Amino acid sequence: MSGLLFAGATLPDGTLSDILVRDGFVERIGSDLKADGCEVIDVGGLRVLPGLVDLHTHLREPGFEASETVLTGTQAAAAGGFTTVFAMANTSPVADNAGVVEQVLGRGIDSGYATVQPIGAVTVGLGGAELADLGSMATSRARVRVFSDDGKCVHDPLLMRRALEYVSTFGGVVAQHAQEPRLTSGSQMNEGAVSARLGLTGWPAVAEEAIIARDVLLAEYTNSRLHVCHLSTAGSVEIVRSAKAKGIKVTAEVTPHHLLLTDETASEYDARFKVNPPLRTNADVMALRQALADGTIDIVATDHAPHPSEHKECEWNDAAFGMVGLETALSIVQLAMVETGLLDWVGIARVMSHQPAVIGGVDDAAGVLAEGRIADLVFIDATSRSTLTTDDLAGKSINSPYLGMELPGRVVHTVRHGYFTQRDGVIVSADVVSRATRDYDNSHTGAGTEVTDG
Amino acid sequence: MRHLLSTADLARDEAIGLLDSSEDMATTADRAHKKLPALRGLTIVNLFFEDSTRTRISFEVAEKRLSADVINFAAKGSSVSKGESLKDTAQTLTAMGVDAVVIRHGASGAAYQLANRGWIDVPVVNAGDGTHEHPTQALLDAYTIRKRVHGSSSRGKGLDGLRVTIVGDIAHSRVARSNAWLLTTLGAEVTMVAPPTLLPHARESFPVVMESDLDAVLATNPDAVMMLRIQKERMHHAFFPSEREFSQLWGLTAERFARLSERTLVMHPGPMNRGLEICSEAADSPQSTVIEQVANGVFVRMAVLYSVLTGSEA
Ligand SMILES: [Zn+2]
User: Fold this and answer.
1) B159 and which of A52, A360, B188, B197 could share a cystine (Cβ 3.0–4.6 Å)?
2) Which residues does the UniProt record annotate as the domain Aspartate/ornithine carbamoyltransferase carbamoyl-P binding (chain B) (predicted)?
């Protein structure tokens, strides 16, 4: 396989460097590297980051292919600079057994646009009543390490305790969607001044905070790892902060939209802004940004949630929760964190690539830009500004809250395992990508370079 | 006025203009021939996704008095119950040449969406959307108070200096929301009274005082007391323990009614739960405006429809 020489990239720490990629790996990082038969790509003026890793993606397949498929969802990932995505379990059938997670894994391998790491359900059918086949999913070819009933909260405290204990056997983690169901019966948006004015049923912050408080205590008691999905309130930040100070093994994620948007966006009853957990107040947004900057919140995860337009172009109460986020995540985080001076690009690489890989147990294979590592890279033009249109959305659905907004930053090239999935801002065609991924697999099978160990 | 979606959108002048226009409409009611030719040739659809015979008939009477052609569309048993969207229903109807839509819907924001999402291009009047607003109800309440207080010299006046108390399920009431904005815009001081479970969570978001002690508020001798209908089902969602207790603490009982000044108006948007939120002594007293509110509803709705369809006041 001939190599690629990326000439003149700006590394996360700001130094200028060439990057030589050969055989799917980063061979050299340094100045004035010799082309030596490689194709030279001028990336002067572009920033390079390790390929982004999303711990929270809804790929919708199997079962909801009208919204997204593994292929289209990983194309959206490539558009956004992601090279690894964790596929949430709330498909139909639910990913609660080895068969379904292996099916999703296989679809990801066929696609080639991103590494698809399946997440397993915590309970059978997300029913919250009995544990799913946690061990057989962990030992399946999909090597599941993250378990989540996302979309639903594991609200039964006994089941949560058992799940935390059980998955520690194989170094797993429970990713909790923290939502007390009784306190959020019929909830439509954040409970506060805006919901009161609009006459929409409130989703109180305490319904999230009560579950997180309980779960960190369970994690401490069982000495297990807890991951909190899409933290959305200032109160949740304080609970996680004090839990970490006590040494409890808890990690937390925040979505791009919770770092930028508030509940005021509901004022026009435009269901593109309907999401779960809901958009909160400005004070919450500021607390989340601060917590991401100081490490209380470990990572950004998209909660990419595609829905067909008929599930959004309807009455707010009837509309589906969720928004697409893979394509725009980096721009939103740049806007909320970099342009506010809260994080530098080293920080972005940490919260959008390295730490998600660590939490998800794939850090041997992803999340690091270094010589000898798999060549998962993203090149961005951070100086670009453009207005988001549906043309920028590479997935199947267009339920983005940012359409029409001017956003900073643009993903120029996405490179996975040494081949382009996006080049010059254009998604590479499916047959080219699928041939490239087969070539990679053929040249590495059994060669001792299998590095997907968790 | 292009649409009437929320009383929060009404400026004071605009609101007084609508009340004055309602006065004009009321004068026609005294004539032997009640019909005005104002909206002849125009078609109005009453799009009712939620049952409300009273409000639908009130709009229909108003529309017919203005000589409009009226289409009543009830969602039950129609394509809507078979999954057709609000967007498709509205577009289908307006494609047939409807000139204005009066919409009643169980979802908050449905009227706003219809008016602003670009689905259709005709005036929209909100006849009640979920737990959001019911602007024509607030206008008829304001009209009723103004008429009782100022009589034949009502024109041009607001409700300045008047103190209005609204009692009941404030949190879920579209009537309370619309009155909160409109009555304060017109200069009234509004106090809302309910158990804390039935007050909005963010009380500071409304320009009104919120209280839970009904007797303390009634002791201040308000100019009007408006009792809201209580939904008995709320009891089952732990908003209050029992009807009996609600009535004892927040109902306008005979004993409380007897303590009221004789000039305090007793109002209710109907339909009443007699013996629960309001006693018959109060409902049937000379202080009660319940029947006038129904009559005034027609005049106010005539004024609103005239305004949105002709772009002017009567
Ligand atoms: Zn979730």
Assistant:
1) B188
2) 2-146
Sheet holding A82-87: strands in order across?
A: A52-57, A82-87, A115-118
Instruction: State which residue of chain B sits closest to A198, comparing Cα positions.
Output: B132
* B chain contacts of residue A317, beta-carbon cutoff 8 Å: 106-108, 130
B136 is a catalytic site residue: no
Instruction: Please give the full DSSP string across B183-235, using - where no structure is assigned.
Output: HHHTT-EEEEE--GGGS-S-GGGSSSEEES-HHHHHTT--SEEEEPPPPGGGG
Sign of CA pseudo-dihedral B286, B288, B294, B295: positive
Q: Which amino acid is at B242?
A: S
- CA–chain centroid gap for A276, Å, is 15
Enumerate the residues of chain B whose CB falls inside 8 A of the CB of residue A263: none
Residue A378 corresponds to which tokens in the numbers above?
């993203």
What pTM value is reported for the model? 0.94
Q: How many CB atoms lie within 10 A of CB A186?
A: 10
Mention every residue, 6+ apart, whose C-beta is less than 8 A from residue B290: B266, B267, B268, B270, B272, B283
- Name the CA dihedral angle for A411, A311, A282, A249, rounded to a multiple of 10 degrees: -70
pLDDT beyond 90 at B31 = no
Pick out chain A residues at pLDDT < 70: 1, 446-454
Q: Which of A198, A272, A280 to mutate to test the interface with B (most CBs of B within 10 A)?
A: A198
Contact A90, A151 (CB under 8 A): yes
Lookup: tokens for B29: 């009611």
Q: Which of residues 187-226 of A touch B (CB under 8 A)?
A: 191-202, 204
Domain boundaries, chain A: 4-48+377-452, 51-360
Q: Which helix (H) or strand (E) holds B92?
A: helix B86-95
Q: Find tokens 């929270």 and name the residue.
A: A56
**Chain centroid offset of residue B51 CA:** 16
ipTM, interface predicted TM-score of the complex: 0.94
* CATH code of the region B7-132+294-310: 3.40.50.1370
Q: What is the pLDDT of residue B8?
A: 96
**What is d(CA A264, CA B174) in angstroms, rounded to the nearest whole number?**
20
Helix axes A430-444, A98-111, angle to 10 degrees: 110
Cβ count within 10 A of residue A389: 11
Express each pLDDT in A231-240 by its tens digit. Answer: 999 999 999 9
Domain with CATH 3.40.50.1370 in chain B: 7-132+294-310, 135-291
The two tokens of residue A198 are 């609009």
- Give the architecture-level CATH label for domain A51-360: Alpha-Beta Barrel (3.20)
Strand A202-203, strand B189-193: pairing: unpaired
Length of chain A as a residue count: 454
CA atoms within 13 A on the CB side of A85: 38
Check CB contact under 8 Å for A316 and B131.
no
3-class state of residue B154 by DSSP: coil
Q: Do B205 and A310 touch (CB under 8 A)?
A: no
Q: Which residues pair with B164 in a beta bridge?
A: B190, B224
Name the CATH topology of B135-291: Rossmann fold (3.40.50)
β B224-227/B265-267 pair status: parallel
Beta strands in A132-172 (DSSP E): 146-147
pLDDT band at B81 (very low <50, low <70, confident <90, very high): low
Class of domain A4-48+377-452: mainly beta
Q: Count other C-beta atoms under 10 Å from residue B118's C-beta.
A: 8
